[in-house]
Amino acid sequence: MRTTTRPLNFSASGCVPSPQTSPRSNTMDFPALKEAQGKLNAARKSLADVFAEAGPTMDLAQVKSIDGDNTNKVGWIRTKNEEIEALAREVEGLEQVQKAARNASQYEAPAPQAEVKEREFKSLGESFTQSLAFKGRSGPVGPAAHLDIEMKALFETGGGGGAGWTPETTRTGRVVDLATRPIQVTDVVPLGSTAQQAVVYMEETTFTNAATEIAEAGTFPQAALALTERSSSVRKIAVYLPVTDEQLEDEAGARAYVNNRLPFMLRQRLDSQILVGDGNAPNLKGFLNVSGIQTQAKGADPTPDAIYKAMTKVRVTGRATPGAVMIHSTDWQGIRLLRTADGVYIWGNPSESGIERLWGLPVVVNEVITQGTALVGDFQNYTELAVRRGIDVQVSNSHSTYFIEGKQAIRADMRAALVVYRPAALCTVTGL
């Protein structure tokens, strides 16, 4: 019985374990960042005020804070949006947030195409057009010529119905993957590591600040603090694939192909669990099912306004700095195609690719989140994917009757816990 083990760590687009990290301090504590964040918030508020004036119908004629006609007002909006974009990138640079690159699928170089040999026999038509009778004709009369015609079966390629064989056709070596959802969410969540079966931490659940001024010999006021233990269990995601011995031995690219696709299956499932996992063992508890996260209903507001209000809740109630917006592709389409009452596109002309940012925040467009719901949050400071063990791929013939059937079971699994340190740092936007 043969058993081999191949541990594969998460890639940049998946989950490369990094040292244990704790929730970082609020980014507003740094002077340079505080100044840049202040400018960014001021620019966002300025643009939000203009949208509030325009109303749900985006009627720029109602905007009195900007001089000029609608064209001038749209120009001002775009300029302000570009300013927000530049400020947001400056803030991100100060935070030194780096996104890891995705695993690149590696395939073997295409094999050279086999050359097809020329036909060895001439057809009756070819023999006639190359004969003296055809070439030496003059007018309706020409010299006679004999054609050497083989009366036996013509030895030609099998495709012509003759006695020969079909030419060899060599595959290029390229494998076109099935159209499936890519990894879209995982990169937003910072990675940590854990050596335990659960991530256990303490949360300050009571903070009563009784500090006040007192007179000489006065009684000191009493404050109150309380901590509560929180825990997030490590869960396993796994998959396996049966493969014959001959497939692995005879096809050089088979093992590389399987070792690429199985880990992708795990990362794709993890990507989904991070957002919508229901928390019932053995599922992770995704962001949308965490107790204590905030919510903001769209109501009659334009979608950008509702998302801005969610950002405000994250700042005011969650005392956090929103860092990204997760939104379904269909809902993002509605925002990207927003137009004023006279038909001018708000976020840029159709000839422009446009930026995937909203109020300066990067937009994580995906098909994991429920359509009609967006999620705003400070993911970098108050969420973490704690990896107990990265992706491990193993091959064995000990499964069932695989040994006597000449089969191999290739399995892959990983273990991780998803932690939300401060639920109020996240806020959903519903009714989009």
Structure in words:
It is flat, with a radius of gyration of 33 Å. It has ten helices and 13 strands. The longest helix is centred in the N-terminal third of the chain and has 26 residues, at about 70-95. The strands form three sheets. The protein has a six-stranded mixed sheet. It has one domain: Major capsid protein gp5 (Major capsid protein gp5 fold, 2-Layer Sandwich), CATH 3.30.2400. With about 425 residues, it is an alpha+beta fold. Strand 8 and strand 9 form a beta hairpin. It has helices spanning about 30-55, 70-95, 125-130, 130-135, 245-250, 250-275, 305-315, 330-335, 380, 400-405, and strands at about 5, 190-195, 200-210, 225-235, 235-245, 295, 325-330, 355-360, 360-365, 375, 385-395, 405-420, 425-430.
Q: In a nutshell, what does this entry contain?
A:
This protein is an alpha+beta fold. It has a single domain, classed as Major capsid protein gp5 (Major capsid protein gp5 fold, 2-Layer Sandwich), CATH 3.30.2400.10. The protein is built from ten helices and 13 strands.
List the helices and strands and how they pair.
Blueprint lengths: L2 E5 L23 H24 L15 H26 L28 H6 L2 H4 L55 E3 L4 E11 L15 E10 L1 E10 H6 L1 H25 L17 E4 L5 H14 L7 E5 H8 L20 E2 L2 E6 L6 E5 L1 H4 E14 L5 H4 L1 E14 L5 E5 L2
Parallel strand pairs: 2-11, 6-13, 7-9
Antiparallel strand pairs: 1-11, 3-4, 5-12, 7-10, 8-9, 10-13, 11-12
Helix pairs in contact: 1-2
